[in-house]
Amino acid sequence: MHLSLLSLASLIGAAWAQSPICDAECQEGCDQECQAALQAAFESESSEWVGDIVSDPFYSTPANISNASPGDVLRWESVPPGQLSSNWTIPASLSLYRFMYATEDIDNNTIPATGWVLLPYHHSLPTPDEPGKLRTLVWTHGTAGRSRICAPSNNKGLYYDWEAPFVLAELGYAVIAPDYAGQGSDIPQEFMYEAGFLHAADVAYSVIAARKVMGNYLSDKWAVYGHSEGGMTAWRTAERLSMPGEERLRKAGEFVGAVAAAPALRPQKLIPLSFEETGTGSGPYSVYFLQSLALLYPDEIRVEDYLTEVGMQRLSVLDKSCFITGTVAVGSLSPEELFKNTSWIQHPAVDDWAVRYNGQGPHPLAVPMLVIQGTTDTVTPMSLTMQDFNLTCRDYPESPAHAKLYPNLGHGPVLEAARADVATWLDDRFHGVSVQKGCVSEDIKPLTDTYSRVDVFWRADNVPMAPAPEQ
């Protein structure tokens, strides 16, 4: 029997999930009940991974990167139909591709990034003035974790499944989605969490790269839509492509709009507010952020100077898992249980990071932007989202920005409530409908007060259908 390399990576990943996630150091501050909770979360989470990225040659950096320029395709793979329901859980009718491409770091050095493309079954959503082309939409994902294994291309449902990518592709969009450099790909800096200025480059170069392989399918017009960290990325993309000196990114095509859903814009403000409003240490978001800062500023910030003993003991769990297990590991710890002190949030290195890596402004917008926000979001609170919205509107009063506020909905559920609004708004952008100058804030009015407010996560079961009995 011969196993494909991808199947072998899947088997290795399954075996890995069966080993204890809480090692000897972790167990020192984690009793049997704690260990059982971590193991259950890890086994559930890792069952959604396609495989072990380290063992999958697709994610290894190819030698040809030394001669590559940002936007070049380093590796491209059309996923065979049989694997769409065995290794992934892709709905019937959709086609999946995964690819590695060249992007750039903060110093404009070429580094690898990975991503995926999802195509609809047929051409059902015409692109005005571009006959035969699919509308091109980039999807930017929210916090998945910090390690390479957490790349959405390595998730059976592409991490957001029916909350966005599957629905968008079934509506007729060609959906391009970067994993972000360092998630999936192997780079010296590791994944640079919340680095919106760089994520924006990953977005533009993913479009440029995809056009080199399937340009005959893709419209020149394109938009970006993201949630949480991805909402921040969509916002930063709209800002960065307005800046001088970014002509290389503007080669992605005719940029027509950005949708920022529940955007995680300023972690140095989000984390302290989470301390106050939730009574937790904002884990695992805060730990991911601290770890990333320590890698980018090793002479100024050290993780061990700020995490408590329990925090350090559970660090290996975060490094070997993704967001769900990370939340179980540190999500319920108070700020005092997780951190010796939180002075790192005010460290001068964080101020530098905020401008150079995250891209905090405000800055003018290159395109119209729609902001989607739930009023009861405790992850990216409405107060902070609207602070940034108002700053943009104050400094650039003619900004074509529209904020829609959804009462009594949290971080994830707002995606469900806003789906039709986003579809209508995107349709207008691809049709070139003009947008009035100036900012607009709109309070959405629910039809009833009996709607569901819970974030429901879907998991696919591939159940072979038995043949119908003969009549």
What are its keywords?
471 residues, alpha/beta, Rossmann fold, 2 domains, 10-stranded mixed β-sheet, 35% helix, globular, disordered N terminus
Give the arrangement of secondary structure elements.
Blueprint: H1 5-18, H2 24-27, H3 32-46, E1 73-78, H4 81-86, E2 95-104, E3 110-119, E4 134-140, H5 165-171, E5 174-178, H6 196-214, E6 218-227, H7 229-240, H8 247-250, E7 254-261, H9 267-278, H10 285-296, H11 309-313, H12 315-319, H13 323-330, H14 335-338, H15 348-356, E8 369-374, H16 382-395, E9 401-406, H17 413-417, H18 419-430, E10 440-443
Parallel strand pairs: 4-5, 4-6, 6-7, 7-8, 8-9, 9-10
Antiparallel strand pairs: 1-2, 2-3, 3-5
Helix pairs in contact: 3-13, 6-7
The CATH level-2 architecture of the largest domain is identified as 3-Layer(aba) Sandwich
Specify the number of helices: 18
Rounded to the nearest angstrom, the radius of gyration is: 22 Å
| Sequence stretches where pLDDT stays below 50 over 5 or more residues | 1-5
Q: What's the CATH H-level homologous superfamily of the largest domain? A: Alpha/Beta hydrolase fold, catalytic domain
SSE-based structural type: alpha/beta
Q: What composes the largest sheet?
A: 10 strands, mixed
What share of the residues does DSSP label as strand, in percent?
A: 15-25%
